[in-house]
Design a protein that fits this description.
Length: 336
């Protein structure tokens, strides 16, 4: 009987070993196959001209018009292929990327549309076939006045969004809201942004850098800086911000490190700044609010701040007469 049991155990063990080995071999073959597949090998190079394809990158930088792009046989009559990158750069002809610009083809890692000085719009359909594995969207130094933010909801693996140097006017409400748990960098400097909608940057637990400097912001409205992480650094230098709404953080986390240099802030009203600075003071992260280059006044509106010297480690409040707030004579506030 013991021999029968031993034989049974032996065969069970042998089958498990064989199954494990087969799985390992299968995985290795799959991995090797994936690495060796180049979508360019499946395209007739003459059918995609003036686009070119190499090293899994589809490059249509030589296209001279939207009509030409939409008439390229290899883009619109072939089955959809996944390329590491789809790109158009340094193009001075295209004014838009229209619906169906790349047919059924899509990117698996990144879209790069950069330094196209006539490119004013991108249709959301351009990204509709995109793989959920896309990690980068690069659309810097074009002439974009807007971006189809609703289209990036497909990109659950997105890590960086680079759109500096355009003419984008608005970041709509919920633009990046919970787009990706991996999104760590958003670069929107040197645009023409005049408004940030509510909860535009909510639900991004790994966000580390949000750059909005050199835009046209005049205020920070309700929920515009609602964040879901305590490690984000927000740069808003060189705007025209004169007002911060009391509900700017919208119940979320106010940025622990925020640069507001070279704006038009006349003072820091008690609401919301007492609450904001109190939260920052209690944070375990390194925190600061950079305010240099604002026309800050030492008047009755900041008497509350004068009475809270513990906040001096968070902000360097220099009055319009050149004095540091906490070096101002107490008599300045006698009539408040």
């Amino acid at each position: 009987m013991w021999r029968t049991q031993w034989t049974k155990n032996f065969f069970v063990s042998l089958i498990a070993t064989i199954a494990s080995a087969a799985l390992t071999i299968s995985s290795a073959i799959y991995s090797t196959t994936r690495q060796s597949i180049n979508p360019c090998d499946f395209l007739n190079t003459s059918s995609i001209k003036p686009c070119v394809c190499g090293q899994a990158i589809l490059d249509c930088s030589r296209v001279t018009s939207e009509e030409q792009l939409l008439a390229i046989p290899g883009l619109h009559s072939e089955p959809g292929l996944g390329f590491d990158t789809i790109t158009i750069t340094d193009n001075g002809f295209l004014a838009s990327l229209p619906r169906g610009a790349f047919g059924s083809h899509y990117a698996t890692k990144s879209y790069v549309f950069a330094r196209n000085n006539q490119l004013r719009s991108i249709h959301e359909d351009v990204f509709s076939a995109a793989s959920a594995t896309v990690t980068k969207i690069v659309v810097h130094e074009n002439a974009l006045t807007s971006f189809p933010f609703t289209a990036i909801g497909n990109f659950s693996a997105l890590e960086s969004f680079v759109a500096f140097g355009n003419y984008i006017r608005t970041i709509p409400s919920h633009a990046f809201d919970s787009v990706s748990q991996n999104l760590h960098t958003i670069l929107l400097q040197n645009n023409n942004i005049q408004d940030i909608g509510e909860f535009a940057f909510r639900g991004l637990p790994r966000l580390k850098a949000l750059v909005l400097e050199r835009n046209s912001l005049t205020q920070l409205g309700p929920g515009s800086l609602h964040l879901s992480t305590e490690v984000a650094s927000v740069t808003l230098a060189s705007n025209s911000i004169a007002r911060v709404d009391p509900l700017v953080s919208g119940g979320g986390i106010f940025p622990p490190r925020i640069v507001l240099t070279r704006n038009l802030l006349p003072s820091l009203p008690q609401e919301p700044w007492e609450r904001i600075l109190g939260e920052l003071l209690a944070s375990e992260e390194a925190t600061y609010v950079e305010l240099s280059g604002n026309p800050l006044e030492c008047n009755c509106e900041v008497k509350w701040l004068y009475s809270r010297p513990e906040f001096a480690e968070l902000i360097h409040y220099t009055c319009d007469d050149g004095k540091w707030l906490w070096d101002t004579d107490e008599s300045t506030f006698d009539n408040c």
